[in-house]
Amino acid sequence: MDPRVREHAEIIVEHSTAVEEGDNVIVSAPPVAEDLVVAIAEKLGEVGANPSYSFNSSRASRAFMRASDPDEFTLPEHKLAEMEETDVVIIVRGDTNTSETGDVPPETRSALAQAWKPVQEERMGKRWVGTQYPAPGNAQDAEMSTAAYEEFVYNAVNKDWDEQREFQANMVEILDPADEVHIVSGDTTDIRMSVEGMVTANDYAELNLPGGEVYTAPVPDSVEGEVLFDKPLMAQGREIVDAWLRFEDGAVVEHSAAKNEDVLGAVLDTDEGARRLGELGIGMNRDIDRFTYNILFDEKMGDTIHLAIGQAIEHTVPDGRPMNESAMHMDMIVDMSEDSFIEVDGEVVQRDGTFRFEDGFEG
Amino acid sequence: MDPRVREHAEIIVEHSTAVEEGDNVIVSAPPVAEDLVVAIAEKLGEVGANPSYSFNSSRASRAFMRASDPDEFTLPEHKLAEMEETDVVIIVRGDTNTSETGDVPPETRSALAQAWKPVQEERMGKRWVGTQYPAPGNAQDAEMSTAAYEEFVYNAVNKDWDEQREFQANMVEILDPADEVHIVSGDTTDIRMSVEGMVTANDYAELNLPGGEVYTAPVPDSVEGEVLFDKPLMAQGREIVDAWLRFEDGAVVEHSAAKNEDVLGAVLDTDEGARRLGELGIGMNRDIDRFTYNILFDEKMGDTIHLAIGQAIEHTVPDGRPMNESAMHMDMIVDMSEDSFIEVDGEVVQRDGTFRFEDGFEG
């Protein structure tokens, strides 16, 4: 077996989820990821955990959902009980075809998700991690050979996460006590927001593997200016290119896109919260050096920032601070590698991708 | 998808397990059998069942078992609860390498089986079926190409089971009220036993798919004579060829084999019940026309009988009749196609593979 798969398994079991003896562990994986399941099983055996393995086939999901009457979905009570008794959930993603469920009606999909919501909510309170197996379908989305994509995934995932945590802590120290953030990129992005009183989180690959971002919540009404998201994004199974938003008093008042502008409009119309920002993130995983149409990686890409319209991430908003709420949370990415800067409380903290706490920084 | 896979799924869901709306269904399958899982998922969607899918990887099992301390195996309580709440269990077998767990110490294997015994026992009370996906490892055991093996499997599995049930019922009618059975094949097999008061069962693919046998329990002390099992059998991962047994007062008093005689001896020494017969079966699925080193098929092969040393099958032994008990149940097969007959209460009911109730029978 590829030694990188074993290393990935070790990081999942030891770092991201810290599995202990006697833990009940669910490993959910697609058939294509059997190698990683084998390597995880070996680690779980060493630790003395009790694994069960869930066969997560997008082809089977599609067949089931299309054949079902969406009004009839119910949650078997024992699936909730199972999750309650579970200590750790390891979710491995990996596709042989990322469009596999593309012909399932959205209503069916939401009806099933709705039925299973109690299990999902229960899961959120567990130690869990979502990670990626370098499957051919994901390589294809990234326009890479499977071999090259494997190299990309393992570079991003099999890192010294203690070192990464310390690197990112420099940025948390700047952002956590800050009031105002000002982001400029070329002549297309110039946006200001307050993060006053919000919590800045350091993502070093606990819930997501790879990790590699620092993120917080903007004060909902404080956002002003305009931003061009020069990396593409996927919404409702369609690609939005060059999404552009203009904010006034925190809300999007104008928008456009070079492709699928109507889809962007539909997303913004989801609910009131979908017109406001829920997250400001700073990508700091420099082994993610290219865009691959997979948000698990893209949002952590080095030399980028991302803003999410919609729902704020709960642990970044302390009690008593205003929290943006929405059924939507859509991450949108801005390249910061050239002709760009991030200013925090009037001081430039990153210019053209180099941080203030690094060699080569020019303030 | 191969239409034979869909037909297999239909028989599993509609005939073998009779899944109904609202049933909680566990589908356990190896990654190689994804096609069948997809087809089963579709049927379950149509019926309105609640499936969950278990990823049954022999590679992962091996890795887990080898890495584990066998003294530490415990059964998570929720796995038992899950089985209690389950209505139907569908177990799909299929190997890319049938020797995959060959280097797991037998003690580790039994320790894990022991820990999970309550779940297995609970499962036996459910509607369940064990079936086969035509995977390359199983084709290799059968010395067939995967394509030819697929043809073999689907011929054996995708049958009109009502018709097969009626065909077999003829033999049940003969055997169920019978006292003495006498089986002769060439000059190597001549064995007599009583089946007085025992129940004869008709296997038309409920718990096993394929089905295709009629079976009962010999009275333990009644077996007399000798038998040469001229089809090979696997025990403890090794092949026993030309196993020969001589019975007196129901017990094996002499044995030999052309290959791995010591393994046969070890099996007979398992416990007291391992020297007596637990089952007499008559193979009646004529689409199983060759031996494939897979007992799920081999024991139902047309023109064969099989005898199992060890544990009797509970529902063939009525209350008050003597039941053979053992930790072992090993099926052993005799070819009846030539120079052979089965005599029931002094009357020949099968000669050279043709039954009394068929054209061409010569009594």
From TrEMBL, chains A, B:
GO MF annotation, one: metallopeptidase activity
SUPFAM superfamilies: Thermophilic metalloprotease-like (SSF144052)
Coiled coil: none
GO BP, sorted A to Z: proteolysis
Classification via InterPro entries: M29_Exopeptidase (IPR052170), M29_N-terminal (IPR035097), Peptidase_M29 (IPR000787)
Cofactor(s) required, per the database record: Co(2+); Mg(2+); Zn(2+)
UniProt keyword list: Aminopeptidase, Hydrolase, Metal-binding, Metalloprotease, Protease
Keyword Ribonucleoprotein tagged: no
Record family assignment: Belongs to the peptidase M29 family.
Matching PANTHER family: AMINOPEPTIDASE, BLL6088 PROTEIN
Name the record gives this protein: Aminopeptidase
